[in-house]
Amino acid sequence: ISNSFAFDVAFRPDDRFVAVVFLLATAGQKLFIIPFDRSSGTLSSNFISPNVDPDSDTGAVDWSPDGRYLVTASRSTSAANFISAYLFENLALTRIGVSGATGTAT
Questions:
Q1: What is the spatial distance between Cα 38 and Cα 20, in angstroms, rounded to a whole number?
Q2: What pTM was estimated for this model as a whole?
Q3: So what's the pLDDT on residue 106?
């Protein structure tokens, strides 16, 4: 992913995927899920770019111990902070919960 840098990284416990929050020059902080080949130690170029919270910047990401769930911490363009939980199956994320609070950006 050009013109970006990794803001947060989390390996799924089975090491088959890496969740990465990239800071993109034109789109802010966005989540990508990248398949990882443990035997060769390489990341796939066929990454998953779920369109989660398109009007927000994802700041942190982590997997559940069983690797079925992903949690993100984000800030929307309206300065609302929130945490989202997703089910990860069939190479897709499904939001299963969200919790948030509003505040002012600092």
A1: 17
A2: 0.78
A3: 32
